[in-house]
Amino acid sequence: MSITRDRFEEARRDWGVVGSWAVWADARPGQGVKDGVGEMSVLDPEQNEHLLDTLQPEVVMLGINGSGAPMPVPFSNFHDPSPRANHFKLRHAYRATLFWGAYLTDAFKGIECYGAKRTIAFLRAHPLVVRDQLARLDDELAAVGSDDPLVIVFGGDLFALLREHWHDGARMVRVPHYAHYLSKEDYRAQALRAIDEYLVSRG
């Protein structure tokens, strides 16, 4: 299911500082693996005429917690070309798959903890924060048209927390976190295998 232009613009206005889409520009020949990751013209329907037909709000990819740094332009979350970022692995993993064009966001926003482990520890100690943040996530997903999405969760810690506190019927599959020390080829293989095994198990 694609997305209408009106809904896309509303999502960009209301959620563009935290959310994004699993669409990236290609790296140019002869350039590094991160080349093109921060190119945002691909997420502008005025410059990418095929964008709206590519987007799939019924597939959602979830990270734990955004960096807290303001996004330079809407939808630039998960499109960081800096040396410390590993979003190029997501581009490589989902290119030419059924999951390209998924909605991308973090389950929790604005929690100022450095590192995933500290964030998870904070959330486990503050269940009311978890409740409020997940209610906000529900609002965000409803805004982009995610009614009963396949949710691809980055990492086991977040997956366990969502299993404990989010919807019992949510269709969630755990994949490795893209920050893990895996080559982009190994990351793609492991992520796609996990999704395939989950889908097969669901019949």
Provide a concise account of the structure shown.
The chain is an alpha/beta fold. It is 39% helix and 14% strand.
What does this structure look like?
This protein is α/β, with parallel strands linked by helices. The protein has one domain (5-201): Uracil-DNA Glycosylase, subunit E. The protein has seven helices and five strands; from the N terminus they run αβαβαβααβαβα. The chain has helices at residues 5-15, 51-54, 87-94, 116-125, 127-144, 156-165, 184-201, and strands at residues 20-21, 56-65, 102-108, 150-154, 171-175. The chain has a five-stranded mixed β-sheet, sandwiched between helices. Strand 2 (56-65), helix 3 and strand 3 (102-108) form a beta-alpha-beta unit. The longest helix has 18 residues, at 127-144. The chain is globular.
